[in-house]
Specification:
Elements lengths: L12 H11 L12 E5 L7 H14 L4 E6 H4 L23 H12 L3 E6 L18 H15 L5 E4 L21 H18 L7 E6 L9 H7 L7 H8 L19 E4 L23 H13 L9 E3 L16 H17 L3 E7 L34 H5 L4 E6 L2 E7 L8 E8 L6 E7 L5 E6 L3 E9 L5 E3 L7
Length: 483
């Protein structure tokens, strides 16, 4: 997740309006654009006492695909032993898959594609320094991925190697003693080992995403900075990408490395309380408002022969933090508005193959950003529910998101009836200035995926969407303002 940075704010309203227009623009024709939206429910889906209710809620919300993080430590034999136990690490019968079997079986039953991210914590016996985030042994990881492939190969649509490997909370070391990045080299070995392990399981051409990178970090650390702040920092995502692919700062080959057989690049394009249109100052950071940076980096990497050309981007973890998070949290109503705007930014970009929602229910409030590096807990308030289980506006807005952007003297509207399984009709309501109640602006037809768009000259103050499913379930989103 993000560290706190000083944002570059719009100096005047005219500049802000121009940024909005450039990022959002007019609603396009609904053509054939499709985008998978993954949902990651966290512990709610892994605990027997909560998983059935969580699945039922997700069906109601219109979830159609899952991201699941498979923690190596949690399924491995003797995970806290420092000496490797004697067992056949390629045999899936040697592992305790526990709740993962139930969850992936339920996803198959519901016909929900699964992205399985295999990640730390690591068994201590498989780590160079016997910690759960230390540099893993590549051979041990390859054997584990062979077992994963045997066990889940037929139930998984996409694999990904490691969660946020450029983050010190998930992989160490991130930097060498001289301040140069260390984690890219470790990750390259992990990716190659994981891919080979899946092939050994009989998956000749496994679809494996590389990256899963956190959005911000440092390119390098100066000696003076190390003396003051140490080495526990994250590597900037584009610096991490170049290091993993053995490229220099100009995306030229910096070694004799071959290309990596990645199917796509996965990234966590979180933003701050400045919103989806925020542009980080550091050019190697990538948030939802600066996806073009990642696209240009991937294209430059492909020209150097490090990856295949035209590699798609999968935004596999995303959410807008709401209060009570005191570092990144925005009012709950703003969370619903910005979450929809972020999805629209991703949907408009033909390079983006997937978007995502991280968490159904908030984590308990944790410590400040960076706490995880020192063994603490960083709570995420990106859920549709508060930690108490009460609903946020996003719970009602996520099934029927709407984005309203100013366009000339009118407005451009875009949205989706997410639970719809075929073309349908939605009702868009508007409240005009001075009015106390909403009135019907338009009843709009959707495409077969539930998407809709149109332009309007009605000067509204806020908008919301109503939709009734074919079975009579009623949905009504929260009020949304114009960007």
């Amino acid at each position: 997740m993000l560290r706190i940075r000083v944002p570059v704010l719009c100096a005047v309203l005219v500049v802000c309006s121009a940024l909005v227009a450039a990022a959002v623009g007019a609603a396009p024709a609904l053509a054939s654009h499709n985008q998978t939206v993954f949902f990651e429910g966290g512990q709610e889906l892994l605990e027997p006492r909560s998983r059935e209710k969580a699945i039922a809620q997700m069906e109601h919300l219109g979830v159609g695909a899952l991201r699941v993080e498979l923690y190596w430590h949690d399924v491995a034999p003797s995970p806290n032993a420092t000496k490797r136990p004697s067992f056949d690490a390629t045999n899936p019968g040697a592992y305790n898959w526990g709740p993962y079997d139930w969850l992936l079986g339920k996803a198959k039953e519901l016909n929900w594609p699964v992205l399985l991210t295999v990640t730390s914590p690591t068994p201590r016996w498989a780590s160079a320094n016997h910690t759960t985030v230390g540099s893993p042994n590549w051979k041990d990881f390859q054997e584990f991925m062979t077992a994963v492939g045997h066990h889940y190969g037929s139930q998984v649509a996409l694999f990904a190697i490691w969660n946020e490997p450029n983050d010190a909370a998930f992989l160490l070391p991130q930097f060498n003693a001289n301040g140069s990045p260390a984690s890219p080299r470790i990750y390259r070995g992990l990716f190659q080992a994981g891919y080979a392990g899946l092939q050994a399981a009989g998956l000749a051409h496994p679809k494996v995403l590389m990256g899963e990178t956190a959005p911000v970090g440092e390119d390098s650390l100066s000696r003076s900075y190390i003396r003051v702040a140490g080495l526990l920092h994250d590597v900037a995502p584009l610096a991490f990408l170049r290091g993993t692919l053995c490229l220099n700062s100009h995306y030229g080959k910096a070694g004799s490395c071959g290309s990596l057989p990645a199917y796509g690049y996965s990234h966590h394009a979180y933003t701050t309380r400045q919103g989806p249109l925020w542009h980080p100052v550091e050019p190697d950071d990538v948030t939802i408002g600066t996806l073009s940076r990642l696209e240009h980096a991937l294209d430059a990497s492909a020209r150097s022969g490090a990856i295949r050309a035209g590699m798609p981007i999968y935004l596999t973890e995303f959410g807008v933090q709401s209060k009570p998070n005191r570092y990144y949290g925005v009012p709950a109503a703003k969370q619903a508005e910005w979450d929809a705007l972020s999805e629209y930014i991703a949907w408009r970009d033909p390079r983006v193959a997937a978007f995502s929602q991280y968490l159904l229910r908030d984590d308990p409030v944790g410590g400040p950003p960076g706490s995880g590096v020192h063994g603490g807990r960083v709570g995420f308030q990106t859920g549709l529910e508060y930690v108490s289980g009460s609903f946020k506006p996003l719970y009602f807005g996520w099934p029927v998101p709407v984005v309203v952007s100013r366009q000339g003297h009118g407005f451009s509207l875009w949205g989706r009836a997410r639970p719809a399984t075929e073309a349908t009709k939605v009702t868009i309501l508007v409240r005009t200035r001075g009015a106390r109640k909403y009135k019907v602006l338009k009843t709009q037809s959707t495409d077969s995926l539930g998407y809709w768009s149109f332009t309007s000259t009605v000067a509204g103050v806020s908008w919301r969407v109503r939709w009734t499913s074919p079975t009579g379930v009623k949905y009504e989103g929260p009020p949304i303002g114009a960007t």
